[in-house]
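Example 3.2
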Amino acid sequence: MILGSLLPLISDEYGLSNTISGSLLSAHQVGMMAAVFLAGILPFYLGRKRVLLCACAFAASGFVIMTMSGNPAWLIAGFLFTGLGRGSISNFCNSNVSEVSDGSAAALNLLHGIFAIGALITPFFVIFAVQAAGDRGWRIAAWIVAGFIVFAMLFFPRAKVTEFTKEQRKKLSYQFLKRKFVWYHIGAMFFYIGTEATVIGWLVSYFVNANIVSAQYAQILASILWAAILAGRLFIVFVGGRFSKNTILLLTSTGTAIFYAALLLSRNLILITFVVGGLGFSIAGIFPTLVASSGKIMKEYPLSLGVMLVIGVSGAIMMPLITGILSDRFGLAAGMSAVIVAMVLLLLFVILVARCNTEE
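Structure, written as tokens:
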């Protein structure tokens, strides 16, 4: 998630337009989509550990590549490779935790809470790197993250991971695509992941380009967003058991739309800080709870999570690019406003998911 903090620095360094910047975020999501699809199939034949190690190698090389040249082709390749790594790791973690916890919403939110800790730290990490090394700071930050990924690779061979058996390979099927319940989840994931990618990817650039806050405070707002996301996910871990998955999904989706609309209308620094926190707290539990809600399907059909995420991630490919195009033509505020439509459609699909859960 450091890419959201690095993007405005990369854009300034290389003189990129909003359309190219949006294309970089979309390239990351293209890589993630391809990886999620492959990560759902390749572990059956190559093993989970081998696929995960390859994914990490792509991610580390992607961060190095984007520091080498401002050529759009090189940058797109770098962002694409980081997406390949992220998608594979995401599929691995979500599927394993869901299997171990029997589709527990608390367990999935705890997993994503740990993810939020890393995302929370990175904006401060970028600020420190830029203050310490000036214009070279963002490159140093990217190199260090690549080093962290390589360091993590040393632990994967030691992990106790259950590999797929020949019997499980024989059960590979796409019959789950005939169930409307699955398509409602896909729709919700499509608009949620697109919304998340745009908000997180463009948040810093929006505040800076619109001259609403300083560049440094915009990075702090990114950390506040992730602190709130962490708080929201931990809240569901400890309190979510008192509520149904349907209630969590409906409340979080509604809150996300309300706080995002308030964000676009806010100009007061204190109010903006509060609204960013509310947005992060609201958006926190949507994706983990959606994954938990589809736990039964995932157990019955091993390929289901990969397929749902592949189609869902396509929303994250389209939305940042659409935001970039609209921003170049009508201004960044107009591009960010388009996300409201995605949020309304997200709420619609969440309602359909809740109805199906109730019926079953």
